[in-house]
Amino acid sequence: MPCPQIAGFQLSTEDDAAKDVEADYKVNGKKSLKGLERKIRLHLKPVFGGRRLSSISVGDLRTFSANRLEAGATPAEVNRELAIVRRAFRLAVENERYHGRVPKIPMLQERNVRTGFFDDAMVDAVESHLPKSLKPVVRFAYITGWRVHSEVLPIEWRQVDRQSGEVRLEPGTTKNQAGRVFPFTDSLRAVLDAQWAEHEALKKKGTICRYVFHRNGKGVTDFRGAWDSACEAAGCPGMLVHDLRRSAVRNMERAGLSRSVAMQLTGHKTEAVYRRYAITSEADLREGVERLNGPQTTAPKRGVAG
User: How far is Cα of residue 264 from the mean position of the Cα atoms in its chain?
Assistant: First the structure.
């Protein structure tokens, strides 16, 4: 039986392993399908297009990684691409279309320690340069630590219980597939009350919008351009939308929330991942050292036995 060709590297046959990967993404409802297709088209197909799985060696994969790094890709980006190759091999084996040896995929070490974060003043500054429709998105993410593009922007009013005071993410809609609840804080209630008032105003004009965050009644899908411009104008260029998530974790740590509760609120599945977000700033260190300047308790001197 001929070996299938690797994923999307050649999409002309039904036996294509990459097509299996794409189908696997669709069946499992993964939201990163577009990213998968882009990685295959731009980076994998030009290198492995037309080759059989049996012809791809560990050496080939190491060379691929080296060339991608030299081209400016990060280790994390290369690993996501190698993961597609690994999945292609595994699906080909599961579907009994490949009976050869599956090579060990040489993944790279990721030095993905989180460093960027916002404080209240920075968030205020960025918001002041954003369009009105995007200000509540940023504030919501800064409070909850939820992922902006996959968890915040898609929120609908059916997920918000204003009477009970909580907003929910249903199981299967988050990165780790687990559901999540975030009870209202005073600030979060203010954001959602303002959005509800806008929702009701639109309704009176004949526009029904199911999304909590919207532009003129239509859901927001992306705002990278507006974000980059606002950060530049606020004096913090290069900050990422994802830095809002890191900042929320840091705020929870500083507020004294237990790690188990904070992880449930933000949706971190493992403590190892959560710890990468619990950032200590120079200001935190100075504040801690200042406490050492306070009254010190001196142990009483021991008397000399007579």
Answer: 15
* Helix (H), strand (E), coil (C) string for 75-98: HHHHHHHHHHHHHHHHHHHHCCCC
| Cα(12)–Cα(38) distance, integer angstroms | 17
Q: Tell me the per-residue pLDDT of 177-219, one tens digit each, with 9 for 90 and over.
A: 778 999 999 999 999 999 999 999 999 999 999 999 999 999 9
Q: For residues 67 and 78, is the Cβ–Cβ distance under 8 A? A: no
Integer CA distances (angstroms), 23 to 243, 245, 303, in order:
32, 31, 80
214-215 and 160-161 strand pairing: unpaired
Residue 283: partners with Cβ closer than 8 Å, 6 or more residues away: 119
Based on the number of CB atoms within 10 Å of its own CB, is 42 exposed (0-12), middle (13-18) or buried (19 or more)?
A: exposed
The answer to whether the CB of 25 falls within 8 A of the CB of 17 is no
What structural domains and CATH numbers belong to the chain?
1-112 (1.10.150.130), 120-281 (1.10.443.10)
- pTM of the entire structure? 0.63
